Amino acid sequence: MGQTPVPARRTALAGHLLAGLVIEAVTHRSASAEIRRRILDPLGLKDTSFPLTDPVVRGPHLHGYDLKGEDVTRFSPSYDWTAGAMISTVDDLARFHRALFGGKLLRPAQQRELLTTVQPADTPAAYGPGVQRMDLPCGSGSDGRPPVGVWLTDGGGPGYTSYSLTTVDGERQLVIAANVYDLGADLKHQAPFPLSKGILKAQTAALCG
């Protein structure tokens, strides 16, 4: 599925935390205020929030669980800060993806940098700044359907994980929110959620046409 390997994920998290510090050093404003001013408000992401210490998820929401089935919905997001301490909906996440990959959020030079990727050896995905580019297999080869290129972002925290995929041509999208993620297992370099082929099947059904 394009899930980020643990070492790469740790590097990405560190990079996002560093980006938050840079934002505050350059703007002299909080990272949360700048994210709201530059992204959430312009894109109309009214159901997305950036709680710093509040452990309560406001409004209707899924409950999150660890691999033992324990409810871990109440959890302070402060440990993850700009590396992922945000609460959103699948609709808002899809709208953000459309803006990000459709060139409506970044300036042209920044957009080119976003879409410039490097593919490490022996990995199915190529990596850009905070994004992944991969080819989704769309058939066994006998039906003649070629792979479909997609942009992928994913994220996970205690009790929750999400995947957002947009085809390179921008014609199709898929956003999946799951409510199992075990931070303890992740810290032990173990799979933090149940491994399943269901996500790949959902990708194929939604994105291959």
Describe this structure in words.
Helices cover 33% and strands 15% of the residues. The protein has helices at residues 6-27, 31-43, 90-101, 108-114, 183-187, 198-207, and strands at residues 125-127, 132-136, 148-157, 160-167, 173-178. The model is unreliable at 1-7 (pLDDT under 50). The longest helix has 22 residues, at 6-27. The protein contains six helices and five strands. With 209 residues, the protein is α+β, with helices and mostly antiparallel strands. The two termini are 18 Å apart.
Low-confidence segments, given as residue ranges, are 1-7
**What about the largest sheet?**
5 strands, antiparallel
Cα gyration radius (Å): 17 Å
Globally, the shape reads globular
Write the layout of secondary structure elements.
Layout: H1 6-27, H2 31-43, H3 90-101, H4 108-114, E1 125-127, E2 132-136, E3 148-157, E4 160-167, E5 173-178, H5 183-187, H6 198-207
Antiparallel strand pairs: 1-2, 2-3, 3-4, 4-5
Task: Provide a quick synopsis of the model.
The protein is α+β, with helices and mostly antiparallel strands and 209 residues long. The chain is built from 6 helices and 5 strands; from the N terminus they run ααααβββββαα. It has helices spanning 6-27, 31-43, 90-101, 108-114, 183-187, 198-207, and strands at 125-127, 132-136, 148-157, 160-167, 173-178.
What are the defining features of this structure?
single chain, 209 residues, alpha+beta, 5 strands, 15% strand, globular
